[in-house]
Amino acid sequence: MNPSEAAFPASWQAGAQLFAAGHWWEAHEAWEPEWLAATGERRCALQALILLAAALHKRWRMGSLTERNFAKAQVYLRGLPPGVFGVDWARLEQEVAACLRSDAPVPFGLPLLPVWLDGRPSASALPRSDE
């Protein structure tokens, strides 16, 4: 992993903030232009994030119990090296899966994306106290 892949790209922040607020469709839209131009691991990571956002949107905004988008995202998630772009991809996958199967929307503060506000990480970017 080269140094530019160690941190969550600044150009992905708008989508991460929308995702953290439960605005999954808008997060998808924010990431799409970057995804269209991306290659390699950047494209793979963005594809995974877009599909996760679509899965959460369909589950909690449209009432769909299908997990087709989540299954597609898993293919991309599992192709990403651990920690690339500053994200624990396996943990994100596990927590989105739990959220999709829950009876209540976003039961535990999704997402686990490094969202930075005012030069400091937000609560969603920090390790949870139960670890």
TrEMBL record:
Pfam family, one: DUF309
SUPFAM superfamilies named in the record: TTHA0068-like (SSF140663)
Protein name: DUF309 domain-containing protein
Species of origin: Deinococcus piscis
